[in-house]
């Protein structure tokens, strides 16, 4: 009986073609996940009621842009923010790119400052972007105040305390938080705005009602129902605080998953860029 066998060279070519097909499929899936996971902005809404809040107030939290471009003139991001109808826009750090490519960031800041009351909280990447006084100057010239140890009282009776990033000095940051804690009054609803959430347990005794943070990028990769974030800076793998809402004693912590698209090679799996909306409401 004659058995037809392909020569070894033909078999090797067939295996090579199959391997190439598999690699191309993997590359296509990677690009689909990476690009598709980074170019769709979602909004996450959280609602908090408290008798000290006099008027309903919507905070829009914009965090961890890292200088990314969202359409010509940042129009995609500006439209997404406009559609949320915010009362205040809180720019919660790492809007700047650590390598100094900040044209997109400045375009966004200038546009936002002409439309909404805005406040900026410095993150670690603002310190990496250049001499910090120059960065602060860019933010202020865009028409946005920087809260670094200062507070602002909104018409709703909500007071926001802005805390500088730890890269400005851990002792300096500690003194700002301690000062804010002394200034805090039980008669006002208090918000602690600080870029990095990693020290949240040490802040609980200060009595702030709400803490807003970013920095984690949502843990980069999420498995819905199983894993709320694979890795976060400063927390490592399987972070305890990756993104979302955490009710901790008398303090509520809300972490924005941010708008970062970097590093470009690392996809955001089930973790699209997000805007966080916090609706602060009086008790009816």
Structure, explained:
Helices cover 29% and strands 21% of the residues. By secondary structure, it is α/β, with parallel strands linked by helices. The chain folds into 2 domains: 1-38; 42-281, Metallo-dependent phosphatases (Purple Acid Phosphatase, chain A, domain 2, 4-Layer Sandwich), CATH 3.60.21.10. Strand 2 (57-62), helix 2 (75-82) and strand 3 form a beta-alpha-beta unit. Mean pLDDT is 89; it is low at 26-34.
Summary of the model, kept short:
The chain is an alpha/beta fold and 284 residues long. Helices cover 29% and strands 21% of the residues. It has helices spanning 8-38, 75-82, 103-113, 124-128, 132-141, 170-183, 200-203; strands spanning 42-49, 57-62, 88-91, 118-120, 151-153, 158-162, 189-193, 210-213, 231-232, 236-237, 244-248, 251-255, 274-281.
Give the tags:
single chain, 284 residues, alpha/beta, Purple Acid Phosphatase, chain A, domain 2, 2 domains, five-stranded mixed sheet, 29% helix
How far apart the termini lie comes to 90 Å
Low-confidence stretches: 26-34
Per the principal axes of the C-alpha atoms, what is the gross shape?
globular
Backbone CA Rg? 23 Å
Q: Which topology of the largest domain does CATH recognise?
A: Purple Acid Phosphatase, chain A, domain 2
Largest sheet: 6 strands, mixed
Provide the CATH architecture of the largest domain.
Answer: 4-Layer Sandwich
* Relative strand content: 15-25%
Number of helices: 7
**Overall CATH class of the largest domain:** Alpha Beta
Helix- and strand-based class?
A: alpha/beta
Instruction: Tell me the name of the CATH homologous superfamily of the largest domain.
Output: Metallo-dependent phosphatases
Give the proportion of residues in helices: 25-40%
Tally of DSSP β-strands: 13
Q: What is the number of domains?
A: 2
Order of helices and strands: HEEHEHEHHEEHEHEEEEEE
């Amino acid at each position: 009986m004659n058995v037809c066998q392909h020569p070894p060279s033909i078999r090797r070519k067939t295996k090579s073609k199959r391997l190439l097909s598999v690699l191309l499929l993997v590359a296509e899936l990677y690009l689909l996940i990476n690009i598709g996971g980074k170019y769709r902005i979602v909004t996450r809404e959280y609602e908090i009621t408290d008798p000290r809040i006099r008027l309903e107030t919507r905070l829009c939290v914009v965090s961890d842009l890292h200088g990314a471009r969202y359409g010509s003139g940042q129009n995609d991001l500006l439209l997404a923010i406009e559609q949320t109808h915010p009362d205040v826009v809180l720019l919660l750090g790492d809007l700047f790119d650590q390598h100094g490519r900040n044209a997109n960031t400045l375009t966004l800041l200038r546009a936002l400052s002409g439309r909404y009351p805005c406040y900026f909280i410095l993150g670690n990447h603002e310190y990496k972007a250049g001499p910090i006084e120059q960065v602060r100057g860019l933010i202020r010239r865009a028409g946005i105040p920087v809260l670094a140890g200062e507070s602002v009282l909104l018409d709703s009776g909500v007071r926001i305390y802005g805390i500088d990033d730890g890269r400005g000095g851990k002792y300096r940051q500690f003194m700002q938080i301690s000062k804010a804690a002394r200034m805090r009054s039980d008669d006002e609803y208090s918000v602690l705005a600080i870029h990095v959430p990693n020290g949240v347990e040490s802040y609980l005794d200060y009595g702030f009602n709400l803490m807003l943070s970013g920095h984690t990028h949502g843990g980069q990769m999420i498995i819905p129902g199983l894993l709320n974030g694979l890795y976060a800076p400063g927390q490592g793998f399987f972070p305890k605080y990756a993104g979302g809402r955490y009710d901790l004693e008398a303090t509520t912590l809300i972490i924005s998953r941010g708008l970062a698209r970097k590093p470009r090679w690392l996809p955001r799996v089930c973790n699209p860029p997000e805007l966080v909306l916090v609706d602060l409401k009086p008790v009816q």
